[in-house]
Amino acid sequence: YIIIIIVSLMILEIYGVNTTSILASLGIVGAVVGLAFQDTMKNMLAGIFIIFDNRYNVGDTIEINGYKGEVLSLGLQTTKLKSATGEIYTISNSTINNVTNFTESDTLLIIDLGVGYKTDINKLEKILLKLNTKIKKIENVKEDINLLGLDSFGASEMVYKISVLCKPNTHFPIKREILKLIKIEFDK
Is the pTM of this model over 0.70? Predict the structure, then answer.
């Protein structure tokens, strides 16, 4: 288009048309268009950098500017996230500063177990270690449980912490399954 405009102006000049006023008008139009599309160009450049840097992909669970969700689409202008409760967030790429990607690596699940003050900690640890074989069989669990020990004392309970390494974005169902196993074993 630029070549066509230059050639057209040169042809007009050959036929005696004063092209300086046309060039001035084109300069003004160019400045107005440049200012009008400034935000669009910022979004597009940011989108290109996001794609080339491979910060996140469609399907990843990420957090951007306080919004957490699954990436539905990644375009040159915007990124769309779907939260766990169903809201769709559309974020301009130029406003994206920090991205936390929850899908790139394994998740360390830390579980707080509230137990009474009369609980024998040695017996508790034996029960938890006994459950280790069942917990290891849960789908997406990668390693044995790690007994972290007593973490705090509350008004009516002590908090004992355990951790389990699991595949990305699988920690919520794994936590529920582990708590179910612990409850069943505690009832025994």
Answer: no
